[in-house]
Each structure stands twice: as structure tokens, then as C-alpha cells.
Amino acid sequence: MSEQFDRNSTILTIDDEQAVRESFHLYLEDFGFTVLEAENGRIGIRLFDELRPDLVLVDLRMPEVDGLQVLDHVVSRSPDTPVLVVSGTGVIDDVIEALHLGAWDYLLKPVQDLSVLLHAVRKNLERSRLTRENRAYQERLEEKVRLRTEELWRANEELHQINRQLRQSEEKYRAIFESLTDVYYQVSLDGTIEEISPSVEANLKRSRDVMLGSCLWDYFAGEEQYERLQEELQKKGRVTDYEVVLRDGEGSVRPCAITATRELSAWGGRIYGVFRDVTERKLAEARIEHQAYHDSLTGLPNRSLLLDRLDLALNRSRRHGYEGALLLIDLDRFKTINDSLGHGVGDKLLCEVAQRLREVLREEDTVSRIGGDEFVVLLSDIGSDTQATARRAQSVAEKIRQALSQPICIRDHELYITPSIGITLFPMQKADADADSVLRHGDTAMYQAKESGRDAIRFFLPAMQSEADQRLLMEKDLRLAISRDQLRLFFQPQIDDEGRVCGAEGLLRWQHPVQGLVPPDRFIPLAEETGLILPIGEWVLRTACGLIARWSGGVLEPLLGHVSVNVSPWQFRQPDFPTQVQHIVAETGADPKRLGLELTEGVVIDNLQDTASKMASFKSMGVRISIDDFGTGYSSLSYLRRLPLDILKIDREFIEEVTSDESHAAIVGTIIAMAEHLGLEVVAEGVETEGQLQFLQQNGCRRYQGYYFSGPLPIEEFERFVIDRQGGAEDLSCA
Ligand code: C2E
Ligand code: CA
Ligand code: CA
């Protein structure tokens, strides 16, 4: 390797002593070096410049141009070329200077062992080669570094550029963000607010700083709100213009339209979007809608809203079997008032009429004005059979007529008006009858009312009209029934399992001068609709209590258990009902422990809290409470358990079927077992046959009421019955 290398290397030896030059020359040539000789410094420099040897051997001491000058020349032209100085031992300081100036090595004269020369030449050539390689490597490295640096610099410059642009767009974004009227938000998947625009303070009256980091869902009014939103997001990933209700910082709720986008990523995800308070928009929409569907003078629904609601009511009644009625009301002689006193008065009059109509009707009824002085009342779901519906409709019409017939004072005028009212019921026979035809029928009926001499109420169907006429007559008569002493209280005995009378139920009759004895089913519904049930019910209670007082202490007392009366829902719902009972008991001197009240299930569960408190007052008086017609209604155990009840009366419908229908038998068996479990007495109503009685006895029912023993009896007959029965009966069935 090194021989190979030697062969390619040229060595310049500069020395003024020829012997030294030749010995070097001959020796080195043997090893394959090319050797050049120079006899002085000047020639040496020239040769060096021309031939660029790979190594220079130079004597330090020469005349004219000495070794140090040559050295200086070579080092300055070619620092990688090794210069070896050759010097006598006496001039060691020169050697040191030469090394300072850049000589690579030195040889001391006389060089006796030429292998030292060879070693030095080879060593320095190698060093030179390494130095050059190293430099080349260094240079390549530097070039690379330079290129890389340049690249970096360019990249940096680009980054700066991007940064500048980013900053500009960030500023733009900030500006938009800060001037938004909508609220921009960004939350983590669990709702934690990461960013929210300052507009939230105007929209939600909440501080942005407080909201940051809190949970957005906490501001939703109601969990289902955000759960629905989450569901939508899960399904679609994005929702727009979705309506939610948010709670603001002042404790109010605000309808907001929200847009949300869900973005999932490796580290979770986020939801962002905007929302906006839409209270104003909602109000505007509501205003527009109200204007479109309401009469601007009275604020009542107009014709289109009426038709909409009538449509709904028709559908509902077809589906659920409930019936309803439509009342068309036209004011008699309104035109005369309007023309003579002016539109201002006319308008005020219409508003007053609207007001009175509203006061008379229930919340769920619709009162509308569909023309000048034409009003329409829609009563939906008022009965499940035509009879009841007609009765209700008629009684509402009567109430309206009464309300409108009170004088109306407008500016110094005292005005008297009367209405003509047409009534039609729905759904009609024809299944496809629509809202328009119902309205037309009402109109026809209203014209009939006008023709009949105004201030009248007319049904669309003639048959209904004649029934209505009868009802009207009956109502007039019923009003006088109490004062004319036409009401009678009959008593139906209740029998225990030993055949003795253990109680009685008071049942009302009306001794009508023309129609004879009218059963309660024919007048109680009318009494309830007209409110007459209140004085009538009071009469019943007073009569029953009077009898309890009369019987007490007498021969009948030990024979007779309780005397109960039926209480209408209307009576029971009066807030002061317990007080009324207390007064009647006190006035008549009756022992309240002998009085019982029969209530139907419907009344009891209608308002459980109210019922419970009223029952508690009766309990403290000692008055007993029965649930009447048990089995036909809700028959819910849960309320029975909570109420202070004493007796269950099994409805006669069930008793009737007990021997013929297994399911009725099972129900009755269950009711008896259940009542026993709850510590309640059971009375079976409507016992008519021995078979029924046997079934009841076998199933543990010990009190019976029914024609099998006796129907309801007038007082004297009832008293005789009790006395006759005082011994009881060995065998109940022989009674
Ligand atoms: P209710 O409370 O279920 O009264 C029992 C009804 O069944 C009575 O009819 C009675 O005569 C009848 N009845 C008794 N035993 C038998 C029998 O073996 N077979 C049959 N088929 N029927 C029997 P009434 O007296 O016509 O009374 C009917 C409804 O009128 C009563 O039903 C009650 O809801 C109501 N009522 C009666 N009097 C009054 C009262 O003073 N005030 C109130 N608010 N309602 C009353
Ligand atoms: Ca009853
Ligand atoms: Ca009953």
C-alpha cells in the first residue's frame, strides 16, 4: 500500500550540499519515489511552483534564499504539502523557528541512517494525505452544513411568512369572534367549555370567565334537552338550527337555536358550533301566528283557528267515542245598537260579550268570533252518549244566555242584549261529516232560534229539540221540587248473614205532580248540570240525619245499624263539605256514628290529597265512608290502602252475573278477599236471587242489599220492615 503510494509521490530536495542531495535522491528512488533536486532556495521555490511536489526536504542553512524563506513560500502556497527541514545540530533554535513557521518535521544532519529519512518521508506523506482527506471531508461537511443552513433559513423564512399570515387571520378571527352576536362555543365531549365567545354575556347574561371550564350541559334546562342533542349528534355528527332551552344567569329560560358539530379524534374529540337566543323570534312568530288565528278586536280565535280545533275535536271524538257540541251564538238586534249608537259602542259591546263568554266556559273550550256579531263555542269531550252530551250542551247554552242577559253598561248606555243560540252535536251520523258541515248545521240551528222569536236555544235535530224542551221544563219543575216538598227519601235495608237489618241506604225519589214517582237516574244528571244537586243533596242529608235522630232511643235504634246517603261528586268537591255535614248533624241532633256517606271511585281518586283530608275529618266525626259501585271504576288498591275507608259496595252489575259469568265471579271473590285483607266491610248490592246470595256467603261476604230482601221503601214501610225482621232469619233464603 505504502509502496504503491511511494511510486506516485514526488519529492523535492533542496540542499546546497550536492552529496546530501544525491544520497537522498538515490535512496528514495530505490523505494519508487520521484525525486527532484534543487541546489539552492531560489531554484527550489521555482521547482516547487512549477511541479508541485508532494513533499519538500529543505536545508535550513543555504546562501541567498535560506530554508526558512522556502518554508514560508511553500506554507503560504500549499499548507498541505509537508515541508521537512534538515539542519545541523548546532542550530537547534532554527529548527524550533521552522516548526513555528509551519515545518512538519525535521531531520538532523548528517543523516547517517537513511531509513530515518524514509520513515519521516513516509510518515509525513501519510499525514499530508490524511490532512487533505480530512480537509476535503471537512469541506464537504461544511458544504453540507451550509446547504442545510440555507434550507433551514428558507424554511424559517417561510415559517415567518406563515406566522405573519396566521397572526393576521387569527386577528381577523378574534375580531369576528369578539363581534359575534351569536355565541360561538367549543366543548370537549363531556361538555367542558374550552372556548366561548364574549357574546354569551349578552345572550345568556352569564360571565364568559365563569363559563370557561364549566360544563355546557349544566346550562341546559332539563337533562332530556342535551340528551336529545347528544343523540342527534351521535346519529348525524352535526345538527343545525336545533332548538334547546338554556337557563340564563338571571334565572329565566331562553329558547335558543343551536348548531353543533361533533369531531372525533385520536385523543377524544370535541363539539363546537354556535347558538343564539331566539326569544325575540319566537315572540314575533307567536305574534304573527296569533294575528293569523285571532280576531283583532276581541282577541278570540278566528274562523280558521276554530275550524282547526273543530277538526281535531272531530278526529278525537271519532277515535275515542267522546262527543262534543258546537254552539253558534248570534246577538239579537246588534245591528240596531251598532247603527244607532255608533261603532265605538258596538266594538265595546262585542268585547264585553267575548269577556262574558270566556268567564262562563271551561279553559279547554274554544270561544271564537267568526263574523260581526257571531260567536262560536266549541265544547269537546263533554259526554260519552248523545243524551248526556245534549244535556251538557244545553246547560252551557243556558249559562251563556244568562250571562249575556245581564245589562251591559257602555258610556252612559245601559244595553240589554239577548242571544240566539244554535246547537249541533258531533260526531254526526254521517261519518265523513267535516268541520264545515258541523258549522253549517250550527248555523241552521241558530236561524231556527232566531225564527222562533229570538233569545232562544235550538238544536239542529228536531228529536233533540223536543228532548231539550222537556229537559227545560223538567229543570223548571226541579227548581221548585224542594220548596213544593216533592222530594222523598226511600230506604233500602241492608241485611247481615243472620238475616237482621244492619243498615240502610237512603235513595231519592221525586214525586212529580204529573209524571208520578220519578227515579233518581232521570233527574240527578240534570240536577248535577244545573247545580241544583247542591240544595237537593243538602235536603237528602238533612232528611237522613233527621231520621237518625228520630230513630235513636226508640225501638228501632238497636235494630238499625247505619244509614247512608249518596253523595254527588259536586257536593263532595265543595271545600266546606265536611263543615256542612257537621252543621247538619248538629242541627238535627243525629249521632254521626250512625251516618254513612257513599262516594264513587271517580270522586275519590280525582284529587287524592283533598279526598284524604276530607275523609280524615269525617273519620274524626265518626261518619263512615263507603265506596259505591266498586269494581266499575278504577278499582285501584293503592289508593284504597291509603284512605280511611270503612266499606266497599260491590256494584250490582257484578252481582248480577256472579252465577252466570265466571270472570265476574272471580272478580267478586277477589274483591271480597282483598277487602278483608284491608280490614274493610263488604256490602253486595243488587242481590236478587238465592244463587247470588249463596255464592256471596260462600265467598265470605256478610252484608247484602237487594230486591231479594227488599227494594227501597218509603219511611213507614221501612220502619215496619225493620221491626218484622228483628228476630233475624234462621235460614236467610227463607226471608
Ligand atoms: P246506587 O247508589 O247504586 O243505588 C242503588 C240502586 O240500585 C238504587 O236505584 C236501587 O233501587 C237499586 N237496587 C237496589 N237493589 C236492587 C236489586 O236487587 N236489583 C236492581 N236491579 N237494582 C237494585 P235508584 O234508587 O234508582 O238509584 C239509582 C242511583 O241514583 C243510585 O245508585 C245513586 O247513584 C243515585 N242516587 C239515588 N239517590 C241519591 C241521592 O240522594 N243523591 C245522589 N247524589 N244520588 C242518588
Ligand atoms: Ca249508593
Ligand atoms: Ca251502587
Structure write-up:
The protein is α/β, with parallel strands linked by helices and 735 residues long. The protein folds into 4 domains: 3-131, Rossmann fold (3-Layer(aba) Sandwich); 180-283, 2-Layer Sandwich (Beta-Lactamase), CATH 3.30.450.20; 298-475, 2-Layer Sandwich (Alpha-Beta Plaits); 479-727, TIM Barrel. Helix content is 50%, strand content 22%. The chain contains 27 helices and 26 strands. It has an 8-stranded mixed barrel, surrounded by 4 helices. Strands 2-1-3-4-5 form a 5-stranded parallel sheet, sandwiched between helices. 32% of the residues are buried. The model has no long low-confidence stretch (mean pLDDT 89). The structure holds ligand C2E and calcium ion (2 copies). Ligand C2E is lined by residues 492, 507-508, 519-521, 524, 537, 540, 565-566, 568, 628-629, 652, 685-688, 705-707, 712.
